[in-house]
Amino acid sequence: MSLAVKYGNIGCNASDSQELKLQKSFLAYLALFMSAGGLLWGTISLYYGLGLQSLIPYGYIALSVINMTIFGITKRISFVRTVQVFISLALPFMFQWSLGGFYSSGFIMLWAVLSLIASLSFSKSSNALVWLAIFLALTILSVVYDPFFVSIKPSVLPDRSLNFTAINICTIITMVFFLVAYFVGQQHSAQIKLIEKQQEIEYINLSLIKARSKAEKKNDELEEMKMELLEITDRQTKINKKLIEEKDIKNK
What we know:
Blueprint (H helix, E strand, L loop, with lengths): L2 H6 L9 H30 L3 H24 L2 H22 L3 H4 L7 H7 L5 H20 L1 H6 L10 H90 L1
């Protein structure tokens, strides 16, 4: 088993259903991919001398490590998923605000879209709608207060950064692609396993039908033998009776 697969199964139990295992693996990979983004942006921040701002992406990595460690120990998804979705949603907005708003950060709040994808793993669709509402509220808040965030923008950053925008768009799309590809691939694998199980069950059922048919045939043969035996016994009884009668006549 590869290291990536072992990591994906960090919160899985052997008794978990295939659907639950998929949800847990998806959450683990979300934390991994967004931590990679945190490492990228933390390093970029340090490159520009923004040590204070770098604490947000690096802090995301630290929180994810702690959260995934808890996940590996408890194997319970409910609390871990809520924490992971929350930090994946909130910290990109906070980081964007610290960099001076939409344009200077390259719309880095788009990283929070990954948290919305993870929220779809909740068993109730209403939970995902709550996270969507929070995302929209933070987006509106960012728009309303963008002039303020621009006013506190670090001077080393450009007012508009096409490079940052390109980095964010390309990286996010790549991660969404691989997460969705993993999800679809696992679903396809689960469907194949389900089909194989169904075929196995059909084969067992067919074998049982054949065995039942053979047993019924044997029973029919036994019934025929029983009838033949009864006929033979009846004949033998009649013969014995006749012999006794003949013997009685002779004795008289």
